[in-house]
Amino acid sequence: MALLNEKPRVFLEEFRVKNAPNDYGMADEKWNFKKFAKNFRIVIVRMDNFEMEFDLIGIQPAFANAFRRLMLSEVPSMAIEKVMIRNNTSIIQDEVLAHRLGLIPLRADPRLFEYRPEGATDGTEFNTLEFALKVKCSMNKSQPKDSFRAEDLYENHSVYSSQIKWQPIGNQASVHKEADIGPVHADILVSKMRPGHELDLTLVAVKGIGRDHAKFSPVATASYRLLPEVTLTREVRGSEASLLQSCFAPGVIGLDSEGRAYVRDARYDTCSRNVFRYDEIKDAVILSRVRDHFIFSVESTGAMHPSVIFVEAVKVLRDKCKSFLDELNKFN
Prior knowledge:
Layout: E1 9-12, E2 17-19, H1 33-39, E3 41-47, E4 51-57, H2 61-73, E5 77-88, H3 94-102, E6 106-107, E7 129-136, E8 138-139, H4 150-153, E9 154-155, E10 158-160, E11 165-167, H5 172-175, E12 182-183, E13 189-192, E14 198-208, E15 219-232, H6 239-246, E16 253-255, E17 261-263, E18 285-300, H7 306-329
Antiparallel strand pairs: 1-2, 1-18, 3-4, 4-18, 5-14, 6-12, 7-11, 7-14, 8-9, 10-13, 15-18, 16-17
GO molecular function, one term: DNA-directed RNA polymerase activity
Family: Belongs to the archaeal Rpo3/eukaryotic RPB3 RNA polymerase subunit family.
Domain DNA-directed RNA polymerase RpoA/D/Rpb3-type: 51-327
């Protein structure tokens, strides 16, 4: 049990959550940079173009929560801000249509653009992207005689994000590739139409942050949780082992060839504490969470790679710290 007490932990009992003995919380610990640099680690568990799971180890909750909040509300992205409607004869009201278009994630690197100055009425090639959406629904002249499906009867009866076309401003066409600008997903449904309905729109996208509007947030979600730990205090086998296995999420508890239970991977435990419902096995486990080991899950909307989003959040925090120190130095 000596090994169990090396890390700061929160223990999950049947009716309460408590800290380890002689552990009064990380907030009371004196900050030591050398100790932090020695213990801090980042471990990437999985990563693709849209999702990333990584561990922040040896860090205080305030920093972990700061990174989460920065990714949600301070890292910028490009989003449709204004919609100029020349014609909208669809059944969707103008303001609802504009709102739907604003929430479509755009593939455009915000680091290559500037913020539009407050009060500016016209955009430039350095701070604005323009798109056009011009679609008209009509009858399909070659429709099958015995079909009643909208796909066969009408042309352009569904308006998708793939029909939003980029209109380069100034020298943008030579700076940005057409494949790098536009909606992230081509199959987002914008509107349903019938013959006689028409959309003729100009869309203006600018750089912004999620603190101003959720459409500018580069992540669909960013969350973290403490690393779970499951420790068996005695041997559990047979029917008790099967019962113990059923109390945890799949993959947490395994059974060996002799029917004995063992901890396969506590990382995926949801900390439901179902094991405390059964008197015969509730004394066989100790449930805890490591207080300085955070499992982060970041899901990008597609504008930026999730790893880039986290790095940008770190840069934002760095700049905020510099600004704070500069303000303090003014009083010296």
